[in-house]
Amino acid sequence: MSETASFPFLQHAPVREAAIQVTKPTTDYELAQAAASGDMAAFEELYARHSRRVYSLCLRMTANTAEAEDLAQEVFIQLYRKAGSFRGESQFTTWLHRLTVNQVLMHFRRRGVKVEQVTEDGEAPVRVVPGTEDHARMPVIDRIALDKAVGQLPPGYRAVFVLHDVEGHEHEEVARLLGCSVGTSKSQLHKARMKLRRLLKSGKSRRRR
């Protein structure tokens, strides 16, 4: 008598294996839940999918490659610890984005970076830096110049500019993330844009020489 005849369930082993492969975690939510249960392969897949985006956001907010690398690693350490808290009520990318922003802001607070406080009456008018309305569609040379100029902004200005003009958050959300008033967010953004305008104008003048 064959071994499979003695143990009929072995005849169906390939079917069960195929079923396991089909149900392997594939969505971000499934991967997060699997990672929360200790599945390192699931966590590594989340890292592969999202590490570049996390690092890019950290770099835009800090303008420092070493700090961005450290913060990106901290984000994924926090992700490993908190993966189980993601309930799928929003997009995983949105949840991870907020986790990343919070990690960067904690870094700023440890360094003593503060967001200037103003009253609502002190709100400045919104004036977009010409040519930077859509960062993703800017010519490469202009994007490089803008990224370089953003890196020269004070951390508080840079955080507001990145969150509002680059990441697309409304002032209410920026204010909530930074722990400041909406008026402060608008004022910081206005000052960041004015400083960027000067930096970009200065950079163009130097290139013409």
Overview of this protein structure:
The chain is mainly alpha-helical and 209 residues long. It has two domains: 16-110, Rna Polymerase Sigma Factor, Chain: A (Orthogonal Bundle), CATH 1.10.1740.10; 120-208, Orthogonal Bundle (Arc Repressor Mutant, subunit A), CATH 1.10.10.10. Helix content is 68%, strand content 0%. The chain contains ten helices and no strands. It has helices at residues 3-6, 13-22, 28-36, 40-62, 65-82, 92-110, 140-151, 155-166, 171-178, 182-208. Helix 4 (40-62) runs antiparallel to helix 5 (65-82) and helix 5 crosses helix 6 (92-110). The longest helix is centred in the last third of the chain and has 27 residues, at 182-208. It is elongated. Mean pLDDT is 76; it is low at 1-22 and 117-134.
Search tags:
209 residues, mainly alpha, Rna Polymerase Sigma Factor, Chain: A, Arc Repressor Mutant, subunit A, 2 domains, elongated
